[in-house]
Amino acid sequence: MTKAELDTYRETLLALRTRLSGNVSHLAEEALRARGGEASGSLSNAPLHMADLGTDNFEQEFALGLLQNQEQALTEIGEALERIRKGTFGRCEECEGVIPKARLQALPYTRHCVACARKLQRSS
Ligand SMILES: [Zn+2]
Description:
Blueprint: H1 3-21, H2 24-34, H3 46-53, H4 58-65, H5 70-86, H6 101-106, H7 114-123
Helix pairs in contact: 1-2, 1-5, 2-3
Zinc ion is lined by residues 92, 94-95, 97, 112-113, 115-116.
């Protein structure tokens, strides 16, 4: 996985986390930082950035609906960000296989590939 791809997932995760925790001023900050810390990032730009973040939320809302609650979602997102830092992001924790990009795009905080997720769901 390239650094640019990782940056995209990190940005998505940060936006999701901020939206879930409902901290709007924080959201503006994260959005600005995620875009490479534009020097002209005054707070007056914030509403525009927030609107940008709102465009592709449908899939994420759907994916988040699969989680039990907001607290669990925040935990998963935090751990996904930690995996990005450690360089293990995108690997299945069960079989260590590569998680397909389409799955990561829909569920950036997932820790399992499709096959393992199904297997674990059945056994729980
Ligand atoms: Zn797996």
